[in-house]
Amino acid sequence: xxxxxxxxxxxxxxxxxxxxxxxxxxxxxxxxxxxxxxxxxxxxxxxxxxxxxxxxxxxxxxxxxxxxxxxxxxxxxxxxxxxxxxxxxxxxxxxxxxxxxxxxxxxxxxxxxxxxxxxxxxxxxxxxxxxxxxxxxxxxxxxxxxxxxxxxxxxxxxxxxxxxxxxxxxxxxxxxxxxxxxxxxxxxxxxxxxxxxxxxxxxxxxxxxxxxxxxxxxxxxxxxxxxxxxxxxxxxxxxxxxxxxxxxxxxxxxxxxxxxxxxxxxxxxxxxxxxxxxxxxxxxxxxxxxxxxxxxxxx
Length: 299
What we know:
Blueprint: H1 3-15, E1 19-21, E2 40-42, E3 47-50, E4 53-57, E5 61-62, E6 72-77, H2 100-106, H3 116-122, H4 134-153, H5 197-207, H6 217-220, H7 222-235, H8 244-249, H9 254-266, H10 272-289
Parallel strand pairs: 1-2
Antiparallel strand pairs: 2-5, 3-4, 4-6
Helix pairs in contact: 3-7, 4-10, 5-7, 9-10
C-alpha cells in the first residue's frame, strides 16, 4: 500500500469515527501484536493478537473475531501463549464476570469510595444481574452497566452531582411522605446518580434501607451506592420502554440501556455526542472482557 493511499484511507476512516490500523508485518511467535479490538478496522496484512495467538487479516474486516471468522489467518502462538478471556469461559473466581483486575483496568482513576468489594457486596440484591443468558450475555450486561456508570460519574470519580445549584429542586413536596431529610437532600448520588425524594423512597423500599430519611448513606457506604445503581438498572424503565437489564438479556441492545437511563435528553438525535461517549466506553469494556459488543448499540 502506498503511503499516500494509506493516508487517504486513514483520513476517511477517522472522519467516519473508525480506528484504522495500517498494514504491518506479522509479529514473531515470541511477540504478540496489539490485542484485537472489535471496534477497530483491519486491512489485509494487519495483525492482531487474540487467545494467546497472532492473527493476520486476509482482507478488510471489523468486528469479526479471530479464530471465528475466515478472514483471519492463524500466525501461531505468541507471548506466553496464555489465551485471552474467552466469552464461553465461566465467571471469574470472584463469582462475578468482571475480575478485580479488569475492574481496575476499566477505572484507573476511580475515586477510592467506589470499591470492587462494595460492588461485589451489592450483587446479592439482584442475583439475575450479569448471570442471565450465558457467559457472553453476562459479560455484555456487566460491560453495559459499567460503561453507563462510567459515563455518569466521569470514570467513577464523582460520588455526588457536581451542579449544587440543582440540589433544592429534587424534592417533590406533594408526595405524602414529603422530604424528611430536607428540601435539598435528594440530589444525585452514586454510580447512576440517584435523585429525587420519590426515587430515594422507592429504592430504599426495594432494598430494605431507609433512604428517604437517610439519603446520605448513598454517598457514604459503597455497597449502598452500588445497590441503588443496580436497583435502577434492574427495575426501572426510566424514559425508555424496558429496564436496562431486560435490554441486555433479550438482545434489544446497548442502545436501549441509554434510552432507559437518559433517553429523553440523549436519544433520537438529541445529543449524539453523549450517546457516542457511552457507546465508545461500552466497546472498550467489552474488549477488556473479551466479548463482542453485539448489535443495536445506538438509540
